[in-house]
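Table S7 (text form). Paired inputs.
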Amino acid sequence: MELTRYVSQNRMLVAVDCIIFGFDGQDLKLLLIKRGFNPEKGRWSLMGGFVQPKESFENAAQRVLKQLTGLENVYLEQLYAFGYPHRDPLERTASIAYFALIDIFKYEKQLSSDFHPEWFLLKEIPPLIFDHADMIEMAKEKLRYKAAFQPVLFELLPEKFTLPQLQNLYEGVYESLMDKRNFSRKILSTGLLLKQKQKDKVGSKRGAFYYKLNNKKYRNMFNGFLNFIPYPKKLK
């Protein structure tokens, strides 16, 4: 007799949750929405939903993100599978978490208001449903690890940016202060940045030169980036 399903096995639901980090040139932020159904309806949440029978985890994550925020064509990287038996009080549900890095201004026109998506500073994240706070903490640790060895944080920047903006980004990721001269020297020594003639004069009278990413060197160095994080001082 040919089996059509596994017998004597309990069923569980599978969901996906999307952790979206964004940078606005000054601060690193996290995108949250108001949950639209019970349990915990109306509370702040990551962008989540259930995987449908005929879709992959990756396709489910992209679909859920577009439905709940309007964001599409966003690169998502799988983080971890969260499967604590009682993480969802209603029914046994495992969640596959994904995270993404985006330039807030590049995607701001895509954001839909249907589920009240809002950007929060990492130090001002409100109470979240289920184990979403644990997901965010793991994503932050993964981001810090990757940023030390790969230039992934450039995905959060606009085409042109200043060194102060880049330092703000690294300090936001590591929640630490970095020495300005040491940071500039080490990042410029990588050869990843192309100095521009224009200056950003909004922040100071002298202004700060804009830089662009050297895309060819970026691709070549992505899997061999030196660890240049200069012993940051923890923020209080």
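Next pair, protein 2 of 2.
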Amino acid sequence: MILLALTLSLVLEKVILISVILGASLGIAMYSTWAERKVAAIMQDRRGPNRAGPFGLFQPLADGVKLFLKEEIIPTVSSKFLFVLGPSLAMLMACMTSAVIPWGPDIPKADGGVISLQVADINIGVLFIFGVVSLGVYGIMIGGWASNNKFSLLSGLRAASQAISYELAMGISLIAMVMMTGSLSLREIVEQQHGFWQDGWFTWNFFKQPLAFIIFIVCAFAELNRAPFDLAECESELIGGYHTEYSSMKLGFYLFAEYINMFISSVILSSLFFGGYNYPFMDIVAANVSPLLVSIIGVLVLLGKAIGFILFFMFIRWTIPRFRYDQLMNLGWKSLIPLALINMLVTGAVILYFFSPK
């Protein structure tokens, strides 16, 4: 009975945690659409959303109601099952990535246990993220194929080749960091970046692997299909791209999945390179406040870093013009992959020379 009670308690904790993470991800993604318009308006010297509620804050709600109420159309010449599967798969994969992210320090319980703010602490968390991200591309490819539209098909092909090109560079860039940390667990990688300064050097991986970070964030732009890498949605050539034939909430799923992916990518960047929920002088703070408040501050720090990356993604979108497709492929194969390989070899040589047993 005691074992059953403990199991039910753990299941309840995980269900609540999953619900909170999904709710927060959907809420932040929803208001990222509002923030994107505001950022664009500021950079273009105009007002942006300002009619639906104060400062236009109800605009995402109005967009959601509009998408729900629009007519649902499935083209008669499409592959109906795949046509529905495409946006569903894109949305599902966008939400699954958050399962291995440590969102904050553990919360101690009165009975001596802890509540982990991580859904699943698996020792191959980095590989899990890459696997889920790779499957997410299938949502775009399937949607483009199932539409039976030549522009959508071309968009799906572009998305597939773009994903293959930049996932290689992204994976190789992380090999160097994994060699340095000695772990694929996101929890361990974050814990190794405790605080901000230790033993005469910064603890955050950005200061130890700056080239890996630059390669990773460029590849993240390409994986998210965001400008200047939004060749899969290039309206000047492909109308709307892979979602040209979609309407109502199927279109909403595709658009929403992009913003969820942007939020989760920002959290992953923060966790891998900028300490996750760690921050300077956190030990001094922990010694003077309650453990629950320490965990809340850690979550807020991680979210603050993620919002900073989201704004960076938006600034880049409204600053740099779109690449040509040949420039996109050349950058991936001729620049980023060689740089990632060189960084991996240099990291291996440094570890072997300075840190191997004498």
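Strands lie at 107-108, 114-115, 197-198, 201-202.
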